Structure to design on (116 residues):
């Protein structure tokens, strides 16, 4: 099985990532403040982190489908909230099917737009 290195941590690539998905360097995210109804774009490099409100979003991996397949992107993210002092979400998010893996938070929403 292939393994992809990410920030000193080895993450087993899911089966779909082993079937031709292409690793990329930046995750393009849209975050929504549900209280203010205000969306914001956030670009986070793989291995890096970005902040939105009280959230810190760490992007561990980001993949896109090859050009000869229908467009889609997937990113592995860790999200922590400084207010709750804990992990809010850890897992894969998919651009074309965001409902498959949803971050549950009272104030914020996160969606992957693309990997670039």
């Amino acid at each position: 099985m292939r393994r992809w290195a990410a920030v000193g941590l080895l993450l087993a690539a899911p089966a779909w990532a082993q079937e031709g998905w292409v690793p990329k360097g930046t995750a393009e995210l849209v975050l929504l403040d549900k209280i203010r109804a205000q969306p914001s774009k956030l670009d986070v490099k793989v291995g890096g982190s970005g902040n939105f409100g009280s959230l810190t979003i760490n992007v561990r991996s980001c993949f896109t489908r090859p050009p000869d397949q229908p467009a889609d992107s997937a990113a592995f993210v860790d999200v922590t909230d400084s207010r709750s002092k804990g992990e809010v979400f850890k897992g894969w998010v998919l651009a074309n099917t965001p409902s498959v893996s949803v971050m549950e938070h009272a104030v914020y929403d996160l969606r992957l737009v693309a990997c670039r």
Q: What stands out?
A: The radius of gyration is 14 Å. The chain has one domain: 3-115. The first helix runs from residue 15 to 18.
